[in-house]
Amino acid sequence: MHCPLPITSQRNVLCVFPDYTPSFGTFSHAYRLLPRVRAFMPPQGLLVIAAYLPPKWPVRFVDENIALASAADFDWADVVLVSGMHIQAPQIHDIARRAKLAGKIIVLGGPSVSGAPELYPEFDCLHIGEIGDATDRLIACLDHGVTPPPTQMRFETSERLPLRDFPLPAYNLIRLDRYLMSSLQFSSGCPYRCEFCDIPALYGRQPRLKTPEQITAELDAILAQPGYPSWMYFVDDNFIGNRKAAREMLPHLIDWQRKHGYPLQFACEATLNLAKQTEILALMCKAQFLTVFVGIETPESDALKAMRKEHNVALPMMEAIGTLNRYGLEVTSGIILGLDTDTADTEVHLKTFIDLSQIPVLTINLLQALPRTPLWDRLKRDGRLIDDDAGLESNVRFLRPYAEVVAAWQRCIAYAYDPARLFARFAHQVDVTYAHRMHAPVRGRLTTRNLRKALVLGFNVVLWIGLLSNYRRAFWRAAGYALRRGQIDAALGMGLVAYHLIKFSREALRGEQNASFYSTHARAT
Ligand code: SF4
Questions:
Q1: Which of 198, 238, 333 has most ligand 1 atoms within 8 Å of its beta carbon, as the pocket-test mutant?
Q2: Ligand 1 center–CA 26 separation, angstroms
Q3: How confident is the model at residue 517 (pLDDT cuts 50, 70, 90)?
Q4: How many whole angstroms separate alpha carbon 346 and alpha carbon 455?
Q5: Integer Cα distance of 3 and 51 in angstroms
Q6: Residues lining ligand 1, CB < 6 A?
Q7: Tens digit of pLDDT for each residue in 153-184?
Q8: Predicted model pTM
Q9: 213: burial class by Cβ within 10 Å (0-12, 13-18, 19+)?
């Protein structure tokens, strides 16, 4: 639905999404291996806001991961809308500076400002919280006038728009072929209360849901776009936050895939106790879910209990990972170092976990305290929060010496992304995971664009990894193993992903990348 308010003025709205700071999980180095790809995923939140604006307001959408908003864009606009996460804070400030120079009213919404509005004094209007009554009040205010107000105005949502009333994201305003993956949201919120996580405070503990019909309508809209990526990421905070709803939605997804010849392959985020939901896992396998990101955080069960992530120890960790693999799901794992429970042995425990779990992709970050989390409140009480501008790798005063924590992080990423180890873990997936995936018909993916994309990717993987890299032997050992079993997709996929991970970890070890994905401090790179 659009904003239901009667509108009297016409406003040109420029939506600007800030550049991401690169991280293990954005795969930014891999874009060059694919034709046209310049960014990770379309920004769902800002696309939904763009679609909700009054229909008679023209909207321009600029994702600065692809190209910067130009002077002409700012000149054209009456209003500049920006959204972003904490990690994009430096870039958000930069957009504000450019919009101010152009003399435009600037509005900021999204997760970062919703968690920490005090970080953004330069914005004229702040939209705090999700789309809802605040959005309507903001639109009414902009309809009334677009002269920057003398003091900052805040619009805070108290009544959220139900997800079932969310408009179709404005995919028509972007080019999906510029993205590595497309994105989709089924639910919002998570029932758990992990100490470091801001999701429950920002989006609630009672997951709110779209209808299956909304999901298939969004898939239709994506499929109608030329060059849509065949990878699609469910950006839900926890895909099984409401298990019953996930169980009921999945058959619709399977039907849609069947009807269109399986054009898409899915990934999502979920808690490790997904392993206990074998009915859901069987449905996910049939729907072509191939990857699941799990916040494993640490292999140490005391640490999990301390951070209130007991659901990760609900069943033995390796057994749970093995179960997910048997349903064709490659597990990607989030890991945190710098926890209060870390000891001198944590590094060894993590390396052992990497070897035993055989998880290829691990996003290993230093603990960062986010506003609106129990962790933030506790550390603030204890005087253990450090200013982000201090130039350190985290805003947490660790219990262990800072230099030791950072050095352990460096040794762990060096260990995890040593090419021989990384490709050995990929090779392990060939039998334990990839072989269990459902062999779906490829009719839906046999498009000219996809074939061209596969050829370009194949050429680049062979050239840059198979011939020119200093880890080509390790690559061919794993890729050859997959190819001998007919897994061409897997061989190309491991080349693509490893290329980013190895390059990124080498940069991080040279100090050119942040040690925390959530850090707001800027790197020169
Ligand atoms: S399970 Fe994940 S989304 Fe839910 S509170 Fe914990 S970290 Fe956040």
A1: 238
A2: 20
A3: low
A4: 43
A5: 9
A6: 190, 192-194, 197, 199-200, 237-238, 271, 295
A7: 999 999 999 999 999 999 999 999 999 999 99
A8: 0.94
A9: exposed
